[in-house]
Design goal:
CATH topology of the largest domain: Nucleotidyltransferase, domain 5
Radius of gyration: 21 Å
CATH superfamily of the largest domain: ATPase, nucleotide binding domain
Strand order of the largest sheet: 3-2-1-4-5
Number of domains: 2
Number of helices: 9
Largest sheet: 5 strands, mixed
Length: 338
Amino acid sequence: MKEKDIYILAIESSCDDTSASVIKNRQILSNIVANQEVHAQYGGVVPELASRAHQQNIVPVVLQAIKAANISKEDLNAIAFTKGPGLMGSLLVGASFAKSLSMALNIPLIEINHMQAHILAHFIEEDNMESPPFPFLCLTISGGHTQIVKVNDYFDMEILGQTIDDAVGEAFDKSAKILGLPYPGGPLIDKYAQKGNPDAYKFTKPRVGDMDFSFSGLKTGILYFINKNVEIDPDFISKNLNDICASIQNTIATILIDKMKNAVKHTNIKHIAIAGGVSANSEIRKRLIENQFGWKCYIPEFQYTTDNAAMIGISGYYKYLENSFADNNSLANPRMKF
């Protein structure tokens, strides 16, 4: 007898994107994301503005997700939401809405770890996506996190290394700000780097543990480098923007790949996945795909790398199979661990 299909509504509101998705088993029926452009003028995410925007966006985004999935809310079997980590105010909006809807429909509530969800996005059923076999290593890189994770099973994950200060996404964005580029600057560094010489300038790579990361020193080094050269030539940035961006991107990509080489040596695992918004960077993707180390690499579709509810949905699906449900006492946790 054919097993009953499982429909889950997923809600993601950890930072500045309000997202809702409907998943049928492992298949994504809809994945709606409302971006918040208000933060660009401030050069970064303003938590209070983010939570207000979530309050405005949550209802229309959920309604659109259900409509796009061509189902009714009565078809849903469960509600999955991001419990943490993230911004407290933003998380509260998604958590409160999910709990209310769960009660109204009398269906189970599933709480999801945002960082685990980034990794589990690899198990979304798509024609052009191959899921990695267990165990595998995942390089999780975003604006707020940089981690190397050993993934033994869907919810059995071990952090092998992580940043001791700033995340790689912040390093890209702050470097872009130093260069006078608008927020978010990471994609712009990638864009200008395409026309630059990655070996034009050398930046010092931080010395930390074999699988840990540090980017605060690199940002400081870039700042001193720019200030010194602009003092000599006020037009230094505009004359050399492509080369500067290419050199910054080359340094960061080299740091990431070197740490992954250490992780592979430590674990002898050669199935390598990548997750998080910074995995959209073309140079990082290129180096992973074209590696000469015998790694097999898994890269999800771009829409599943940035913050989105589809990754919350696939995580909710596997928790649903385990009957791993939360109650309405569940609280948002901005510092949630694995």
